[in-house]
């Protein structure tokens, strides 16, 4: 089962242009430019996953700049990685409080923003990309506030067939997920998120 409140998946790489080109070749679908993240040194490209969910391809705005941004571990990557998933709860503040009461701290809520190619500034709130996310298996939490959601802009579409995870301690991940009231199938193994996408060129797996 795919978590019904999933907002987006984060596919990160140290060279975004190369990632977009490789993804387009594999899928037959070209992600569109989302924009630049203000003050973070990253930009993204987007593709819809059906409904109000999408895939974000993210990397350095300038791959030659040193050091690379630490966002989603980009500065440590040697290739593409499905680095995170993001859930949109009905009440972000209440969800964070509840998770802490249940023994899992998803992190403090911070403001973020992105400048779109047409000049609009999108502003939202997110639990930060730090703390114990169990190598990306525990989701970040987002509140888009009054911002126009990325899927409202007519993104090119793929279908998310499945999202699963592996971790050396799946029971610990399960406790964090339960504290957040979210669902993800997690089995034992080296830490990884794995998404299966239905594309014009057949099903592909990204992890």
From TrEMBL:
Q: Please give the coiled-coil regions recorded for this protein.
A: none
Q: Which residues form the VOC domain?
A: 5-139
Q: What is this protein called?
A: VOC family protein
**Record-linked InterPro entries:** Glyas_Bleomycin-R_OHBP_Dase (IPR029068), Glyoxalase-like_dom (IPR025870), VOC_core (IPR037523)
Q: Which organism is it from?
A: Pseudonocardia adelaidensis
